Structures are given as C-alpha cells and as structure tokens.
C-alpha cells in the first residue's frame, strides 16, 4: 500500500490525506479509551465493525436528507470522507438516563426521560470535554446561533430516525454523541454543515429491548466482558457482519 501522509490521530481513528483534494481517508483502529483516556485497551475487530456500522448508518441518514461526510468505504478498516472543518463541540442526545446524566442528576439508569435532551460538550482532552451551553459556544465563536439551530434540528432528526432503525432490530437507542463539520458548497458559495466522525457502539448506548443487555462501549468502560461480541451482535442485527467475522488487517503505513 502506498505510504500516505497522516493528518490527525485520534483515540479511535486516524485521518490520512485522501486521493483527491477535499477528501480524507478515515482509518478505524481497535484502540479503545474511556473516561478521557484514563482507561486504555483494545477491542479486537472493533475498527472493522465500526467502519461498517458507521458506513451503514451514515448511508441511511443520507437517504433521509441528512448531509454527512461519508463518501464510500474503501476496505475493511478505511472509508473515504469529505474533509471538513470540525466544529469543536460534541453533541449528545439522550432518550433514557444513563452514564454522566444519571450521575450528575442522581437519576436511576434506565429512566425514560420526559423528552429527548440535547447537550453540548467542548471537545478538549486537556479539559476533559466540559459541558457547555449555547452561550459559551456562540461567545467563544465555536459556532453561530444559525449553526446551532441547524445542529439541533439535524441531531433530533438523526435521533428520530436512528431510534426507529434500532428499535426495528430490538435495540433501544439510549443516547449517542455526534460531531459536525463545515464544508464549502460550490453550488451556493457558502459553508454548509455535515455530520462527521462516526456513529457506532463507541459513541451510542444500545440496550437490548427485552433484556436491557448493553451492546456498546459501556461493556469496556465498566469491565463487563463480552465487548467484542457486543459489537459483533450490533453488526449482525444490522445485517452487515463481515463474512468470516471481523478479520484483521495490517495497520496503516504512515509518513510522519
Ligand atoms: N460519548 C460522549 N463522549 C464520547 C462518547 N463516546 C457518548 C457515549 C454515550 C453518550 O455520548 O458513548 O453514548 C453520553 O455519554 P456520557 O458519558 O456523557 O453519559
Ligand atoms: N472516548 C472518550 C474517551 O476516551 C469518552 C468515552 O467514550 O468514555 O475518553
């Protein structure tokens, strides 16, 4: 494989320069972290599965008119995406209390929320992704009011659609995290927002409808065991488990 220039390395993915201007190759690693990097490990096959799961969900969302950065899957661990200017905000949508919401407000895990709640966090490893309000986001210039209106409406559409999609395969979409980026639209000569990053069991909580079994990264965060199997089960239910399971591939070759 040709050596490529690495643009960015995150905790679970690496971004390389793409084949054409305005594109990037997104490589999915098996590395897993939790609690802002305090816990580190490997989930064998996770990269292969998240590549497929995110491809599948981004394609379904594009079909209902949600713009995304996804272009096409290239191989087991890589997908071609549009290069975006990432907005440094993590958008969390919650339907059922779990994780940091349960902890912060003392609400029992599993309590159905009176309505979906959208929260914003500032993407900063050093600061531990602090929760922020629209006031911080607009005052510090991370996004405009118009951007936030659009981010909110896109996030709620994603929530409605994905909640239904997962329910159809016996999973409750408890909560999830989205990231957005800006791209230049040459039709309108303006910057538009697109859904970026990934959508996978790394950033969604998915509970089995009947048993409330956790089929997501909480199994890793909380040392529950059966982590690999949980990711495989999500892919299996979506009908996209690679034949022969998530076989491994050599790691990426990089030019530093
Ligand atoms: N999330 C937030 N930061 C990173 C990730 N992956 C996701 C979690 C969970 C939701 O956002 O995977 O689905 C809420 O996380 P928490 O920890 O705030 O309860
Ligand atoms: N991915 C984040 C981290 O590594 C948060 C999490 O998923 O728990 O710290």
UniProtKB/TrEMBL annotation:
Ligase as UniProt keyword: yes
A single MF term (Gene Ontology): phosphoribosylaminoimidazolesuccinocarboxamide synthase activity
Superkingdom = Bacteria
Please give the pathway this protein is involved in: Purine metabolism; IMP biosynthesis via de novo pathway; 5-amino-1-(5-phospho-D-ribosyl)imidazole-4-carboxamide from 5-amino-1-(5-phospho-D-ribosyl)imidazole-4-carboxylate: step 1/2
Q: Which key words are in the record?
A: ATP-binding, Ligase, Nucleotide-binding, Purine biosynthesis
Q: Which Pfam families match?
A: SAICAR_synt
Catalytic activity, as annotated: 5-amino-1-(5-phospho-D-ribosyl)imidazole-4-carboxylate + L-aspartate + ATP = (2S)-2-[5-amino-1-(5-phospho-beta-D-ribosyl)imidazole-4-carboxamido]succinate + ADP + phosphate + 2 H(+)
**Which EC numbers does the record give?**
6.3.2.6
**InterPro entries from the UniProt entry:** SAICAR_synt/ADE2_N, SAICAR_synt_PurC, SAICAR_synth, SAICAR_synthetase, SAICAR_synthetase_CS
Report domain SAICAR synthetase/ADE2 N-terminal positions: 6-237
Q: An example Gene Ontology cellular component term from the record?
A: cytosol
Single Gene Ontology BP annotation: 'de novo' IMP biosynthetic process
Q: What family, per the record?
A: Belongs to the SAICAR synthetase family.
Q: Which NCBIfam families match?
A: purC
Q: Give the matching PANTHER family.
A: MULTIFUNCTIONAL PROTEIN ADE2 (PTHR43599), SI:DKEY-6E2.2 (PTHR43599:SF3)
Q: What is this protein called?
A: Phosphoribosylaminoimidazole-succinocarboxamide synthase
User: Which organism does this sequence originate in?
Assistant: Roseospira marina
Whichever gene encodes this chain, its name is purC
């Amino acid at each position: 494989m040709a050596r490529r220039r690495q643009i960015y390395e995150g905790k679970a993915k690496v971004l390389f320069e793409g084949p054409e201007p305005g594109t990037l190759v997104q490589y999915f690693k098996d590395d897993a972290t939790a609690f802002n990097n305090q816990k580190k490990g490997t989930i064998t096959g996770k990269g292969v599965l998240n590549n497929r799961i995110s491809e599948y969900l981004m394609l379904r969302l594009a079909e209902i008119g949600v713009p995304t950065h996804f272009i096409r899957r290239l191989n087991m661990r890589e997908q071609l995406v549009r290069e975006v200017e990432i907005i440094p905000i993590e958008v969390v949508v919650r339907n059922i209390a779990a994780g940091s919401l349960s902890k912060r407000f003392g609400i029992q895990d599993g309590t159905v929320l009176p309505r979906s709640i959208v929260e914003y966090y500032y993407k900063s490893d050093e600061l531990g992704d602090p929760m922020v309000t629209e006031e911080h986001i607009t005052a510090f210039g991370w996004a405009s009011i118009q951007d936030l209106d659009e981010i909110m409406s896109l996030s709620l559409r994603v929530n409605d659609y994905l909640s239904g999609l997962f329910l159809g395969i016996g999973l409750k979409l408890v909560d999830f995290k989205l990231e957005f980026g800006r791209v230049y639209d040459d039709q309108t000569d303006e910057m538009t927002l697109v859904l970026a990053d990934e959508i996978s069991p790394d950033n969604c909580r998915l509970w089995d409808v009947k048993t409330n079994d956790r089929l997501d990264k909480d199994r890793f965060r909380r040392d529950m065991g059966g982590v690999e199997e949980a990711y495989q089960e999500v892919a299996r239910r979506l009908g996209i488990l690679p034949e022969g399971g998530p076989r491994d591939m050599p790691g990426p070759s990089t030019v530093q």
